[in-house]
Amino acid sequence: FWGIMFIGNGVTDPNVVKHEYGHSLHCDEIGFINYVKNVAIPSVMINLLDRRDYLPYDYYSYSWEAEANRRGGAELSQSWKPALPADTNVDILDLWVWSIMCEVINFVKK
To answer: What is the pLDDT of residues 54-107, one digit of tens each?
Structure first.
């Protein structure tokens, strides 16, 4: 947004750069507030779930991530995980509940 892309240090994969560029194009199109609400927050949430291995589907198959790939011309996927079914509606509240449930289950297992 506003010509800025957020990419971690040491990122050299051109597909990651293209993917993040796709996010910036999306932000420019729908506006900052709509982007934060509809893309940035869900993206961060599923990224955190994915890093903890709680995400049951391919990270890049979620609509906002697939859209970033499409807009930026990136070819990113987690081929070892199934894709999110096309008719699935992802709700932020559902993601929060899923995250908390996974943490509770992990805590109880210890």
So the answer is: 888 888 988 889 999 999 999 988 887 878 877 777 766 777 777 777 778 877
Q: Is 82 exposed, middle or buried (0-12, 13-18, 19+ CB in 10 A)?
A: exposed
Tokens encoding 69: 């790939």
List the structure tokens of 98: 């899923």
Which amino acid makes up residue 107?
F
Please state whether the predicted TM-score (pTM) of the whole model is above 0.85: no
79 SS3 class: coil
DSSP code at position 82: P
Centre a 10 Å sphere on the Cβ of residue 22 and count the other Cβ atoms it contains.
Answer: 23
List the one residue out of 102, 2, 105 whose CA is nearest residue 53.
102
